Amino acid sequence: MWYQAINNVIHLLSSVIWIGGMIYLIFVFLPSLREINDFQRAKIIGIASKKFSLIAWHCIALLLITGLIRAPHKLMFNISVHYGLILTIKHIFVILAIIFTILWSKHINKYYKPIVKGAQNDLSSDYQQIEIKFKFLSTANMIIGVAILLVILLFNLRF
């Protein structure tokens, strides 16, 4: 059935883009910014994060839609069978990832958006704490995303 194949491709691509983007952010993008001053770093983080946030939310929407189409509805949150338990664990991680993405987006809008728009020409004295929170939210979200992939891998190894 061709529509299932298209649905699977969209689901997998959305996963790769969202989780891969988080991995890139943590291991490549943020470490690369250490060489520039705090204000420029904050401005670049704000610009890049705004763009990635838009992509991430589109991927999340596609994942939710394609996931609902893919999932056997009788097994949704049915922990009495193995597949239902794995699916429930995955969905709990997905909910956590969405919560962390909301917190991450709010953090960007609150602290980085004014810098990007030019409404703020210098950084507050607590900028280091703001950047630490940004890195924490980004890292936590990446770990949850990888956990989702590991749950799927464990399920596939089982069957």
Can you give a write-up of this model?
This protein is mainly alpha-helical. It has four helices and no strands. It has helices at 2-32, 38-70, 82-116, 127-158. The longest helix is centred in the middle third of the chain and has 35 residues, at 82-116. The mean pLDDT is 85.
Spell out the blueprint of helices and strands.
Blueprint: H1 2-32, H2 38-70, H3 82-116, H4 127-158
List keywords for this structure.
4 helices, 159 residues, elongated
Estimated structural class: mainly alpha
* Main sheet characteristics: none
- Strand % is under 5%
User: How many strands appear in the DSSP assignment?
Assistant: 0
Number of helices: 4
Shape: elongated
* Series of secondary-structure elements, N-terminal to C-terminal: HHHH
Helix content: over 70%
N- to C-terminal separation? 22 Å
How many domains in all? 1
Q: Which whole number gives the mean pLDDT?
A: 85
The radius of gyration is 18 Å
* Low-pLDDT segments, ≥5 res: none
What is the compact description of this entry?
It contains four helices and no strands. The protein has 159 residues and is mostly helical.
